[in-house]
Every structure is written in structure tokens, then in C-alpha cells.
Amino acid sequence: MFSKILIANRGEIAVRIIKTCRRMGIKTVVVYSEADADSMAVEMADETVFIGPAPASESYLVADKIVAAVRETGAEAVHPGFGFLSENASFARRLAAEGITFIGPNPHAIEAMGDKIESKKFAVKAGISVVPGHVGEIDDTAHAVRISEEIGYPVMLKASAGGGGKGIRVAWNRQDVEEGFPAVRSEAKSSFGDDRIFIEKFIESPRHIEIQVLGDKHGNVVHLFERECSIQRRNQKVIEEAPSPLLDEATRKAMGDQAVALARAVQYDSAGTVEFVAGQDRSFFFLEMNTRLQVEHPVTELITGVDLVEQMIRSAYGERMSFGQQDLKINGWAMESRIYAEDPYRGFLPSIGRLVRYSPPQEGDVGDGVIVRNDAGVREGDEISMFYDPMISKLSTWAPTREGAIDAMGRALEDFHIEGLGQNIPFLAAVMDQARFRSGKLSTNYIKDEFPEGFQGLPPTDAQRDLMSGVALAMQRALLARAAPDQTRSAWVVVAGALHQTMSVTAVDGGLTILTGDRKLRLEDIQWRPGQAVFRANLDGRDFTVAVKPAAEGFVIRHRATTLRVMVLSPRSAELHQMLPPKKAADTSKMVLSPMPGLVVSIDVAQGQSVRTGEVVAVLEAMKMQNILRAERDGVVKVVSVKSGDSVAADEVLVEFA
Questions:
Q1: CB count in 10 Å sphere of residue 543
Q2: Which residue in 532, 556, 527, 531 sits closest to 543, CA to CA?
Q3: Domains assigned to the chain
Q4: Residue 458 has pLDDT above 90, yes or no
């Protein structure tokens, strides 16, 4: 077996690979850029090598620097993780020529399947049903428009070397193609170093189901069943699960057999994923093959017990697979939620900054037949950089049933606390609580269908209002006990949103009994001290966790997808509050504000210019994604506050209208 492996990646996948290597007794080398000098992966690796500036094009994507690091450290093999050089056949060939083992598929398989254009050509020749589209390169925007109109709208513009949801746009008309094609090409170039684009028919209300395959260098290929990846936003997977609630055994076998046949045809000899677009009637079409480890591989590992990173290493070393298809079985159900540095309340735009607080849930067997796993590459105090993918971690849960895995995920998300930047935990929690998601009636349009006006949180249920009111009373009592231990009050008016309730609280048998009207709540096992940002307790027999922070005369409390300001007032203060006039919001209707921190790619208007609603005002880039900002009203530009190349903060004024 290898004695030392170099990991040509960063973040959580680098940490993930290190953990398996440690278990196998293999030493690790991690390369790092300026932005990752203090990262968790650098701390964990046996050796590290600095490879340059933060932009990936100057560090992680430079093959010469990776090879030099291998030579410097004496590593025998390179694991590319996912993204960066993981699907680069030239890089795999370069390593082979240098006598270095590539822990991934052979270059022929990467070329045949890893390239989205070539994979479709290959699949067509092999007689596999594919999504209708143009299987070839696109010359320019005019060519893209002609092809799109031949196929018929809507169409999808996709980077040939794409992955991770980058370099993809859905075009519903000619204007979308004219604006989207240059943006997709630019994203493809900056993210993958390859600006080739292809176009295919966009199938409405589809499901995204993929089959995990695994091969060795002795001709053995198996599949490890399917993953459902239909919950997506901007073509980026957000929630995955294994197995899929759609498939029956016959469809599962048919998809698995087709994936294995395709892998055998290219002599596939590592971990890879064959992706399908599926109809609600269980019809399916080949979409593409990812010739690398997938971000969502933990759910497959949880239902099969197979360590895919270990199998990739063993295959690369030349070992024969120790199991066959007949040895693989689906055990239970697994869910994965991608925790992203993004603001769901601002259309899921990227959010960069420092993890002021980072407290993930307990991992391992947490009781009641539930397993929690959190794949992360960050710690409290780390910074999420604008140069890379905005993922913070991947939270996975396993239970014997799908319902159990969903319940476990909801509880784990409650226990996951992050401060310092925007993050999507409230949104993920909202999905877990939705009846449609729990029913398994999914599609890639799910987020658009369920949150057509964007995500603004969920209103509190009656049970949540009681829970938050009880928490506020308990915190108020603790604060008073510290400030004035000789003064106690049991009767309060609790204002939770628009609801005013008279409530009383008393300490009984180590817990608190709360009375409101004819109802009695029992709050026990309280884990909170003044200054803490998380409040844990048990309410009427149910454990829960909420995020809390102080506010004037009360607290802001978040439970799952619901955030509520709760004030705890004396009866006299409550009377006075009723007389206060409502606060007016600042008027920003004449301004174009930056919706996120990022880099100004272009300013498309000038002072004195007349602009109509819908016209492009500016283009911003963050996390390698370009975002087009449009005018929301007619007007004349009064001030342009920034220029191309400037870095801007969220809510910074870019343009002001007269």
C-alpha cells in the first residue's frame, strides 16, 4: 500500500481524505494557497506545501505546482478530491508520465465520460437514451441562439467541464441565451480552465437521480445504488438522500445495470457517478458521468458501509475489489444537507466572512438508532473566502427509515449553530418540516415551487410560540437572578410577534412551570447561562435547541426556520409599549445595493444615463458565480459609487438614481 499520498484539494474533502488515510496508516501531504494557510486541513496533514495565491487558477489548478509538491515530499500518489484537477485527463496523464499514481479513473475514462460533450457522444453510440440536445461545441453567442431555437425553449447552457452547479444557466427565450451564454462561458473559464459549452433540452419538473459506481483495475465494476439529488437551487444540489423515494426495485436494477454497463465500456477503475434525469413515471435518461468522488458520497457510505475514499486508494494501488454486487445491500436511509455560507433571506446569495461561532451537532451514534455525521473543513474562527465554493460542511444523518432520517436531520440542524456570516440552516430546517418533502414528491423545481417569492423564514406554529415564550421567560428569570437575586417576579406579559400573553413562571422540582390561561408548560433540563448563544432544554418531554440573542426588553429567538422577537415585560411596560408608534424603514428605492460581498465585474451604466426597468446595471462575482443586477425602476443615474474591480460589501450602494 502507498506510504504517502498528496491531496491536491482543500476544505472538507481534504479533511475527509486525511481521515481515511490515517485509518489506513498512510501519511498525507496537503497543498495550500495563501487563503488556506491556517486551514483545518493544513493543521491535520503530516506535511504541507504552499502553492501560491488564493485564486485557484494560480494555485490549485496549476499542475506544475502539484507535481513539484509531490517531488518535494516524496509522495507516491495524488488524490484530487472533487473539483479543481479531479476530472482533468491531461493532469492524470502528466502524473503517469512522472511515475506518480493518480487516485482516480484512467485518463481514457475521464476523456470519454468526464467531458460532458464527449460523454453524450459516447452514450449515443452505446445506444443509451440521452436528453435531446446539441452534442457538440458552441462557437459563439449567435451559434448558441441558433442551436437553442432549433432544440426549442427552454434549454440548458452547460459548461462541458462543469460540476458543482457552476457554469449552468436555464434559458427560456432568446434574450436569456444572449445574456447567459457569455456568463456561462466566463464562469467555465474561471472555474475549470475550459470555456467549452453545450446545450440540451431542459426537461421540466424532472428528478435528479444518480448511481454510484466503483471499479478496479481487474475489470470488476459494481454499483452502490442510487442517490436522490432533486432538491437544488441554481442547479446546485442542496439536499441529497439515499436511496431514492421514487424508485422501485425494477427501476433501481435497470438504472444500476445501465450505469455499470457504461462504466465497463470505458474500463472504469475508480469511484464515479452516472447521473440520470428521471420523470415522475420512473422513466430516465442519461445526463452525464462525473469521473470523480461526489460531494454527496457520505449518504452512500452510510447505507452501504463502504468507505469510497478507501476503495479509490485500493483500486489505484492495484488491489482487486474484495466484494461483488451480490454482497451489497441497502441498509436504512440517509440524508445529507449542505451547509452553505449564503443568505437564504437574500435569494441564497453567497456570504463571506469569519465563523465567529461554529458549533456543529454531536456526531456518531446519538441514540434511538440514529447516526449523525458532519464532514467539515472549518473550525470556529476560520474565514470563508470569496475565492472558493461557499460550502461550510455536509451534515448527514442515518436512521432505519426515511421518516427517521428526516426527523434526525431536523434535530441535528437545530443543534448546528453558526454566527458571523449568512448560512442556510433555517432554510434546510424548513424543507425537513414540509409535508411535501416528507411525502417524497420531489423535483428539481422543488425550491422554486415551494418558495416562489424566495425564502423569508416560516411563521411560528402555536407550539413554537409557546416554546419561544417559555425560553424567553427562562432567560429573563436567569438574568434577573444574576442582577438582583433578592427581587423576583412571577407574572409577566410576553409579546411574541403580534401575540400578547399574560404568563407566570415558577421553579418546581428543578425545572420551570409556566402557566398561560388554562395551559401549563413544563420546561426542564435547561442548559443555558447568560451570554450563551444557544439555549437547550426539554419542553413537555421533547428536547429542543434554539439560537438566542438579546434585544431591547427581550430576545431574538430562532427555532428551525422561524425567527421571532420575544419581549418579556412587566404589566405596566406592556401598557406603555402599546402606545409606541411603529418604526419606519429607510427608503432605499432609489438605490441599487450590493446584495452580497463580492467583486464588481462591470458597471453597465454611467452618470446621467436614462435607465429602464430590467436593464442591466452591474455584474458582481462571488464564489466564482456571476450575478447580474438589474434596475427595478425607470430613472436617471445620479451617482455611480464603484467601478470594475472594486470589492464591495453587502448592502453597499453601487448606483443611485435621481
A1: 13
A2: 527
A3: 4-103 (3.40.50.20), 132-201 (3.30.1490.20), 339-432 (3.30.470.20), 462-577 (3.30.700.30), 591-657 (2.40.50.100)
A4: yes
Contact in structure between 647 and 598 (CB atoms under 8 Å): yes
Q: Are strands 333-340 and 383-384 parallel, antiparallel or unpaired?
A: unpaired
Q: What is the largest CA-CA distance in the chain?
A: 84
CB 566 within 8 A of CB 496: yes
Report, as residue numbers or ranges, the catalytic residues.
Answer: 288
What pLDDT, in 10s, does the model give residues 264-323?
Answer: 989 999 999 999 999 898 989 898 899 999 999 999 999 999 999 999 999 999 999 999
CA dihedral sign, ordered 544, 545, 551, 556? negative
- Interval 364-383 mean pLDDT: 96
Q: Which residue has the cell 474561471?
A: 190
- pLDDT at 346 exceeding the cut of 70: yes
Distances (CA, A) of 488 to 485, 505, 511: 7, 10, 16
> 179-193, 433-447, 576-590, 622-636: which range is least confident on average?
576-590
Mean pLDDT of the chain: 92
**Cα(419)–Cα(144) distance, integer angstroms:** 43
CA nearest to 160, candidates 140, 126, 143, 135: 135
Nearest 5°: phi and psi at 559? -125, 115
How would you list the strands of the sheet with 635-640, edge to edge?
591-593, 653-657, 635-640, 610-611
Mean pLDDT, residues 56-76: 97
- Find where cell 466503483 sits: 214
12 CB burial (10 A radius; 0-12, 13-18, 19+): buried
